[in-house]
């Protein structure tokens, strides 16, 4: 290993450590003695820095030829790239023109198909409208005939109802006339049977609240009128008329009403309470005689 610089020795160490086995459980490149040996070699043969670079004509010519070759290669590659780019551009333009032509063809075909469809639709719509108009005309004719028949029927019904109403009116008039004549005859009969008592010229007027006269104990009952209406079997009884100044009946106590407490104070009246309105006086009712027509006393 004499005459070898330390860099060469450092380069041999990994090959030696890869081939040989470990010593003291450490590889030969990481051993302490090997490290001390390399340090001594560096001290004995230190690395000297070159002041002027070492160069040769062969190397310079080789580098220049290499540079020229690389430049020619670059130019060739650039020319190839430009050619490929132009070819791709031409191809793209051709494809674009082809696609545009195909698109225009497809659009034309679509427009033609649409025109044909619209024409067919218009034809179908025209036929449908014609059929609809024919149907509507037939329907209108039918409705007109129906309305005419209905009008004739309604006119006949109106004439029938008018004739019926006229008949009913004539019948009601005849009935009213008959009832009027019957009532007149009945009134004349009652007048002939019962004469109305005429009031005396200087007779005293009856008092307004005078008590009614009591009936006699053995007085004969009044005879019923000959043509008086008979009472209904389940008719409600007429309520008796209250007397003008009769005392009011006390209200009946409720069954479950609370009893009043003895010696309870009366409720005091409110200060601003509205006053109770006075009760209106009872009006005097007219006194009727036994005759049919009433006679009012002043």
Account of the 3D structure:
The protein has 298 residues and is mostly helical. The chain has a domain at 1-47. The protein has three helices and no strands. The N and C termini lie far apart (175 Å). The model has no long low-confidence stretch (mean pLDDT 80).
Q: What is the typical, i.e. mean, pLDDT?
A: 80
Helical content band: 55-70%
Q: What fraction of the residues are assigned to beta strands by DSSP? A: under 5%
Q: What's the helix-strand series?
A: HHH
| Tally of strands | 0
Question: Structural class, from helix and strand content?
Answer: mainly alpha
> Shape, please?
elongated
Low-confidence stretches: none
**What's the assembly state of these chains?**
single chain
- Strand count, sense and closure of the main sheet? none
Number of helices: 3
- Radius of gyration over alpha carbons? 72 Å
Termini separation: 175 Å
Give the gist of this structure.
The protein is mostly helical.
